């Protein structure tokens, strides 16, 4: 449905729309197109202000809530939903969902523009809006219609008015009803389309002011700004855009913020840069060029017009004789005469451009003689005397831009001489704030003498002339207020190489932007660049000669090094050139160039988050340590670096994800170091000595979700054990340091420890409790002693420690995340001091795990949860200590066919201080432990059996379990232990040593299924030995098959099972206190 209204201003349009709503309107979603796309946002803002302020509104205008959502700067659906939630003032818990989901999407490498709504929030919004009738007013800055039901906005509960509004000026032209239908044909969710008629220039000017108010309303610091100033900035931007569109020559539109300041529209002050950057981002022009041209032409004809475009055709006399502020003169071959002096006299900005395909015409000497208000002067393809330019006496000039201008001597002798010449130059150069020279080789103005006079220059741009080496040497201790410096695309290099540029930035304390694009012969950056303490943007595109780029500027925010070459144009604000202005690829000439950069170090650039590196075929090392990068994207930020071998990301606290790009499999990366802890204390890991690895990964991070970014990288690394190494530490501890194995350490020693290590035991609080360490027989080792855990990291190691986050959520779902790395690739695993997780291990196959060490995790329910499987039978050592709540080490579950190899390689089982442990390991389909050598268990008060049937349904029952290599059994303080294997005979033919104490419920020892073996020694309390049950000699299970037992030297009265202190380990006591 279409509706045309006749309103000519904001108030009239608002009232007509409200009248339509009060009528018998059956459509709850209305689209307002304004006047050819213009002015709609101002009308909607007016409606949003009017409805809540009505004292006695008509029934159909009674709304319990009025929601005004300005998404003219479109970011994503998520951002829009957040604005709705803020308008509804939803509770903190709901608002926290946005932070949580944004963080989750960061780790999932989801682009900001692709972030969808949060379903739970949509449900809360819908529930909130059901409480009363609402009106939603929505400015849509995206390219598509939005389905509001996704956000929880159900139109039948209220009224929705919306429009497309993509910044300040959006215009399109109607050509009959069919064009309107084409415009509205994609609005599937909209019931009514409203548009208005064309406007006169005075009405259009009034709308410009309303739109200016709309801009000011978006930013708190602009609330008190003069709207006339905003409108003038818009008019000037329109003027520059039309001038550039019609001009044959250079594009100067990027200088709009400088023009506003130098012209005097915006006065210099504390917030000047913030204001101009904001307005520059807001003021742009979308729409049909022909329509914008018609509007501009009408504005030019209006009596209040402040601008004038003088075209090549027609006579100057045809233009109205009145003052103009901004004048543009465009000509292909027409000479400018002195009779234009009067017209130019009152101008504050003048643009003169000739056709560069013909010989540049000479400007009259007195052309700008009467210009006493001139602040901006831009000359393109003009000729004048470089010795005595025609604007030399313009003492108010703030901006001078010259493009493709040439020197031509004056025909008269009116050039100033002597002291008068020096005075004019001094006055002229001291007034300049911005100097922009493009393909204008004016060596005189760049002489040391003239640069010394530019006391107030804040921006210097030189394009297509002298190289950096020449200009850089002149900047030493000069231009103290310089904020932006661009010396780009030089057309010729200096013949001498003796120019010293290392001190170029001495005294440049105000420099914020430095662009040296295209200086291909520059071999190194000046050493004094570190003195530019406020540097925020550095662009080195096309600097092919640089070999090492090392920067430590702490305020640097943006860095670009594009080996494909310089961008076609730069931006006015402190942002890197957009992709639209960059080369699509290396040219035929560039392909033959040698881009030498082999190392880039931005270590210590703590604010750096905008990075672009491309086309650097020799880059081997990239150091971004300490940078603020949140997502490092090898598909958009670091591209075409085929020889990159070393990547350092130490101290990158904000790092959430790494997107490796499509060519990760072809990568030659050899070493990656990541540490997301604060920069203090971070250091590069030691080099591996044992073997030469083709790929090494060293990481320390607190949030386990960062492991998602490592899966593709590890998966694409060489699969052979000898070629791939990773050490992943998940912790926030500042004391975490990487352990590197000695050169002679073997894999076997890494898993079990060396022979000497096995002789060292860990005795808790030995000095404090030395009186209760009872010795058995003549053994020098106390019964409470416990072997030290495996400390030698294998080639693929993961450690999870204190301060780790998101571990449990990451291991409970196996996908490309931590669970996949642990189960699929990890050889050694150390989990410790994780206080909040009930589970730290994934289910599924553990394909490579060889040793596992778990300790001091008081909330852990089981070390390996139901569904975990030693599928390849690689696990050799299990070492567990101080798990207060764990009920088992390896959980029971449904047994699958691939559990046949479970514990095939297990050699050592060490358990200590697990007071809630009921059993140790659930066995597989074929229960046997063909490699087990050592069984050492102490202080597990509730342990009943060490090995139990593995199936939860007890479908698999076995009468015996074989331990063909078991030599040592050490059991201490296990009062509930009944037998080692539940409901099965334990066969250990090579058993050598049994040491038992504090196992009062134990009833059976292992049997021997092979005769003729040496009898094992036994150390055990006499009452326990006497209570043991035997099957007889024929069953190879009889006391005579053991050496005579050695009993305790001292006996203690047996304590009741209910005595608490009997089972409190010092570590537990510490936790209780």
UniProtKB/TrEMBL annotation:
What residue ranges carry the coiled-coil annotation? none
Q: Disease resistance protein At4g27190-like leucine-rich repeats domain: from which residue to which, for each copy?
A: 901-1005
Which protein is depicted? Disease resistance protein At4g27190-like leucine-rich repeats domain-containing protein
What the entry lists under Gene3D superfamilies is as follows:
Ribonuclease Inhibitor
- What ranges does the record give for the region Disordered, renumbered to this chain? 571-590
């Amino acid at each position: 449905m279409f509706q045309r209204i006749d309103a000519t201003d904001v108030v009239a349009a608002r009232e007509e729309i409200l009248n339509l709503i009060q009528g018998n309107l059956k459509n709850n979603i209305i689209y307002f197109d304004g006047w050819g796309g213009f002015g709609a946002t101002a009308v909607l803002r007016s409606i949003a202000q009017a409805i809540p302020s009505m004292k006695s509104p008509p029934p159909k205008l009674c709304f319990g809530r009025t929601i005004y959502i300005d998404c003219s700067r479109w970011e994503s659906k998520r951002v829009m939903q957040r604005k709705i939630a803020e308008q509804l003032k939803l509770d903190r818990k709901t608002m926290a969902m946005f932070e949580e989901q944004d963080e989750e999407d960061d780790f999932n490498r989801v682009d900001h523009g692709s972030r969808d709504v949060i379903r739970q929030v949509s449900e809360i919004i819908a529930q909130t809006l059901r409480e009363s009738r609402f009106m939603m007013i929505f400015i849509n800055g995206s390219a598509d219609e939005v389905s509001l039901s996704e956000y929880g906005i159900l139109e039948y509960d209220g009224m929705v008015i919306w429009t497309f509004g993509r910044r300040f000026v959006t215009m399109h032209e109607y050509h009959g009803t069919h064009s309107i239908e084409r415009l509205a044909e994609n609005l599937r969710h909209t019931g009514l389309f409203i548009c208005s008629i064309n406007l006169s220039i005075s009405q259009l000017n009034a709308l410009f002011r309303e739109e200016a108010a709309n801009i000011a309303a978006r930013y708190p610091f602009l609330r008190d700004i003069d709207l006339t100033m905003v409108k003038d900035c818009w008019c000037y931007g329109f003027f520059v855009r039309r001038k550039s569109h019609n001009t044959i020559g250079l594009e100067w539109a990027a200088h709009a913020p400088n023009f506003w300041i130098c012209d005097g529209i915006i006065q210099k002050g504390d917030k000047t840069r913030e204001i101009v950057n904001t307005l520059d981002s807001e003021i742009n022009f979308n729409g049909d060029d022909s329509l914008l041209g018609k509007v501009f032409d009408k504005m030019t004809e209006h009596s209040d017009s402040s601008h004038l475009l003088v075209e090549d055709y027609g006579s100057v006399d045809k233009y109205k004789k009145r003052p103009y502020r901004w004048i543009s003169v465009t000509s292909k071959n027409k000479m400018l005469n002195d009779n234009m002096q009067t017209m130019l006299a009152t101008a504050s900005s003048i643009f003169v451009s000739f056709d560069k395909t013909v010989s540049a015409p000479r400007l009259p000497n007195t052309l700008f003689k009467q210009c006493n208000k001139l602040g901006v002067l831009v000359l393109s393809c003009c000729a004048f005397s470089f010795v005595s330019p025609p604007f030399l006496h313009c003492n108010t000039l703030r901006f001078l831009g010259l493009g493709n201008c040439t020197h031509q001597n004056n025909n008269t002798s009116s050039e100033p001489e002597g002291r008068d010449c020096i005075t004019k130059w001094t006055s002229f150069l001291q007034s300049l704030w911005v100097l922009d020279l493009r393909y204008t080789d004016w060596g005189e103005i760049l002489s040391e003498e003239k640069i010394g006079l530019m006391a107030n220059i804040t921006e210097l741009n030189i394009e297509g002339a002298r190289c950096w080496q020449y200009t850089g040497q002149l900047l030493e201790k000069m231009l103290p207020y310089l904020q932006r410096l661009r010396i780009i695309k030089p057309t010729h290099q200096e013949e001498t190489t003796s120019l010293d540029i290392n001190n170029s930035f001495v005294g440049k304390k105000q420099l914020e932007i430095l662009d040296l694009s295209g200086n291909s012969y520059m071999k190194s950056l000046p050493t004094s660049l570190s003195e530019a303490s406020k540097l925020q943007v550095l662009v080195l595109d096309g600097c092919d000669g640089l070999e090492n780029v090392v920067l430590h500027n702490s305020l640097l925010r943006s860095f670009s090094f594009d080996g494909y070459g310089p961008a076609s144009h730069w931006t006015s604000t402190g942002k890197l050139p957009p992709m639209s202005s960059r080369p699509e690829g290396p040219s035929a000439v560039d392909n033959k160039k040698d881009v030498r950069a082999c190392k880039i170090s931005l270590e210590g650039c703590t604010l750096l988050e905008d990075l672009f590196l491309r086309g650097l075929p020799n880059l081997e090392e990239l150091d971004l340590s300490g940078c603020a990068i949140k997502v490092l994207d090898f598909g958009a930020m670091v591209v075409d670096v085929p020889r990159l071998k070393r990547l350092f990301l130490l101290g990158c606290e904000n790092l959430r994800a790494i997107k490796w790009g499509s060519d990760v499999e072809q990568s030659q990366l050899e070493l990656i170091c990541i540490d997301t802890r604060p920069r203090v204390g971070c250091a590069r890991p030691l080099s591996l000595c044992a073997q030469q690895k083709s790929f090494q990964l060293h990481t320390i991070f607190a949030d386990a979700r960062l492991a998602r970014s490592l899966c593709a990288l590890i998966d694409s690394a060489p699969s052979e054990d000898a070629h791939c190494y990773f050490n992943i530490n998940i912790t926030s501890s500042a004391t975490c340091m990487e352990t590197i194995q000695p050169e002679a350490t073997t894999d076997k020693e890494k898993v079990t420890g060396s022979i000497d290590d096995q002789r060292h035991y860990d005795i808790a609080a030995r000095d404090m409790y030395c009186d209760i360490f009872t010795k058995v027989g003549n053994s020098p080792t106390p019964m409470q002693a416990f072997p030290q855990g495996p400390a030698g990291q294998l080639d693929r190691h993961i450690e999870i420690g204190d301060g780790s986050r998101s571990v449990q959520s990451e291991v409970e779902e196996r996908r490309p995340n931590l669970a996949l790395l642990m189960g699929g690739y990890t050889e050694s695993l150390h989990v410790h001091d994780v206080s909040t997780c009930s589970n730290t291990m994934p289910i599924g196959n553990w394909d490579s795990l060889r040793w596992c060490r778990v300790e001091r995790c008081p909330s852990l329910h089981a070390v390996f949860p139901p569904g975990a499987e030693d599928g390849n039978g690689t696990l050799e050592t299990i070492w567990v200590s101080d798990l207060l709540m764990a009920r088992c080490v390896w959980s029971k579950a449904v047994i699958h066919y691939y559990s046949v190899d479970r514990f095939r390689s297990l050699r050592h089982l060490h358990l200590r201080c697990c007071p809630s442990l009921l059993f140790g390991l659930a066995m597989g389909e074929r229960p046997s432990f063909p490699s087990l050598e050592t069984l050492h268990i102490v202080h597990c008060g509730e342990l009943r059996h060490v090995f139990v049937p593995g199936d939860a349904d007890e479908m698999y029952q076995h009468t015996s379990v074989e331990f063909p290599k078991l030599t040592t059994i050490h059991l201490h303080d296990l009062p509930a232990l009944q037998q080692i294997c539940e409901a099965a005979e334990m066969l250990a033919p090579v058993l050598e040593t049994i040491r038992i104490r504090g196992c009062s419920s134990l009833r059976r020892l292992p049997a021997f299924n092979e005769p003729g073996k040496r009898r094992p020694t036994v150390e055990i309390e006499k009452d326990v030995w006497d209570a043991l049950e035997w099957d007889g000699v024929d069953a190879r299970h009889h006391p005579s098959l053991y050496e005579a037992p050695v009993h305790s030297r001292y006996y203690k009265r047996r304590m009741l099972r209910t005595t608490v202190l009997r089972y409190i380990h010092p570590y537990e006591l510490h936790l209780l206190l």
